[in-house]
Design brief:
This protein has 26 helices and 32 strands. It has 833 residues and is α/β, with parallel strands linked by helices. Helix 1 (22-35) packs across helix 2 (47-60) and helix 14 (383-399) packs across helix 15 (420-429). The N and C termini lie far apart (97 Å).
Amino acid sequence: MTDTNHRDNIFLYVDSPIGSGKTHDIIEYTGFGAIAGQCFIVAQPTTDLIDQTCRQFKARFPDVPCVAIHSEISDNVAAELKKQTEDAGNEFVGHGMVVICSHSGLIQAPFIAEKKNWHVIMDEMPQTLYSGRLSLARNAHLISQVFTIRDDETNGHYSKLMIADENRLDDMSRDDNELGVFSHTVQEMARKINSGWWRMFVLTNQWNEVMHKRKADQLIVYGHLRPEILTGFKSTTCVSANLKNTLAHHHLIHDGYRFMKHKMLGRRLRYHTHENGELLTIFYAINEKWTKRIRNTMYQGKSIQELIATAATTEFGDAPFAKLTNKDSMRDKDPFGDQGVSLPHAAYGRNDFQHLHNAAVIPALNPPTDFFAFVSNVIGIDAEDVYQAIYREQVYQASGRISIRLPGDLNPKKIVVADLSTAEFLAKMYPGAVVKKMPIAFAIPPPKSPGRQTERRPQEQELHRNELAKMTMRRTRWKAKHAVVLNPLSTPIGVRYNTGIHDDNHARTQNEAQPGFAISLWDSRAAKPRPHVDYGLGHMAYKNNLITQRFYTTEQFFDHLMVCAETKYHAEKHDNDLVVTALFDLSKDPGRGHTKKNHVVSQGLMLDLENTDLTPEEIHAALPYAMLVYASWNHAPDAPRYRVCIPTLPMSYDAQEASRRVLVRLLELAYPDRRIGVDRGKLNPVSLMYLPCVRPEMFLPLMFDGAEFDHIDIVRSCPPDIIDEVISKSPLTEPEEEAAEAAEVKIAQAKAKAPPSSDINVPGDWVRDRAIKTWQSRGTIKGPGRMQFWSLARSLIDRTTLSHGEIRQILWEQAGHANNPSERRGEIDAFFK
């Protein structure tokens, strides 16, 4: 063997993908090396992998001494490793041997005998950075007895943790009950310090608070490994998947160490790049980085994690799948509903999941913000590198356990991750993989930023709270109002349905409503005059452009569209008739036709797509509802233009517009890199579209079976931004409704602020006194006086039983406290108009 490191600052490496056979190659390499008289220490990340490797090694090389060392075999791995290396120098002189131990055992071992005679192989990169939180609720005094600190010259925020009492430290590292709370964390920290190979730090301010008992609930300890522990050996080799993105690699490079490719190890690998990436589809749910805060955010009674898990199980269907999420989120309730097979959090070397083709890997593994700060300030590693090394590396390791690791398996594979950046990271690891956003993601609201981003003055905070309360109330009121099946015939107009004439006395009830279409047919002059027709002096009134309106069942309307497409010939586009999926009462606004004000009810949805990249089949795949698709007048194979018609139950104007916008968003999320081509100018419920007709390059209408479109569910789960957009354009938000919302907001605020004994329904002196006090403390400042004076007036008028004369008197007196009294008094009359 000629792999001797001539310089201690150089490490050898093998960087190969998951599933390429790294562990098998290590067994072959060390086995033949031991036969040739070399000694090896193979460090691996898990006890299961150590046991598995040891069994495979002994089966392959039964005559070569091989010893496994880990915490389930030995009480002190570091001490046992020291003993084995000492014994090897005495017992196996001239012979080779292999010691397989844990990462933690090797990097916490105070002493290894005859290091220059041993080759070290790190199977996967070790953890070289540490962060632990010690709970000190009962035993803070023990910390001060065992440790002391020394200021860190390189960064004033941190202090090095030093040993004050070595005997007590030895006891602490062995005794699981020394501190009684989080004893494993304490023991791990003590062993790291005791090894001499770890530099441990605390925040200087926090240490002082603990020592002076001002804040003795916890102590955060950080640490980083001294890379010298990996030097001095005959050779040190790092064998890892995605090696250059690991935290240990960043750490060692930053500390001045270099990596050289191993000349022998790695030659027996199955592949050096993932194959069959084109068989993999990677789904993601959110654009933001995945954190526990976002994971636990509730929406419509479910956490974001539950929404993603539900979407994953829907995507996988009946196919089995592997899953991984945080342990704490599985403790009370499995977000996957007990479906799927759980992956281990340390999945290194596991081959027992490769019969599965699907995986959902959504653990939130971001370290605390303070750890990012420590790594950046003390070690000098960028926060993004830390995030990728900790979170994305585990996602890669876990997701790589399924059949994607098998080059000969040609089944399609699906992996669900939480966020876009992780999906893109995985796609780079598997060349040819496709990244898609899950359709369920339209229901997930953008996460709120933690904490307050800007400092607001007290009056600005109150206005902000009022706006939020009002917005929430409007959204709630909107959902309650529009998430219902309307009675479409309770209108003053008569409407023909099937073969009968229905009016108010023969209106269908809610229970009789069925999916279909409410159709108004219009002469094309309702939208645009026909250029080749002489209208003369007496142009038709808008109401005369309405040809007919009636209800169609789904079958009736689809049949009508088929007949038009097969039999209607028109020389010009404008000779054709127009259709809209709504009914109108033209007596409301006689001067106009298909307007919001004349709108009565909508039923059925139509989307107009122009120059889209999507085929009708792809549209139906993303919107799996019953639908008919017909070609538009200007449709051409190289410039597709067509309409999508979906039957629905009757609904209001707002529910119709919200439903159309949600459908568009679903298409955008399903095909993020494709041109959707939806004409957004025709998303409102009164937009007219031409009926189909015979055209040279048209296709016959295509009918697709599918689920019934449930606008009630759409309205109840409608994204807030779509609700706000619809409300801003709605003809149904009347002034008195706005006033009612404002009054409810004020009463709710009074209830929140009032003392328990006050009369909430009829606020009296308490409301008056509080309003005056608020005005005097905030309104006298130059600048916000006008706004605060208006607020005082509205509080007295809307929330008290005082007469207008009494309120005028109060306002006149309080204006004297203003920065400009005459200007405030000049505004009083306007409050009572």
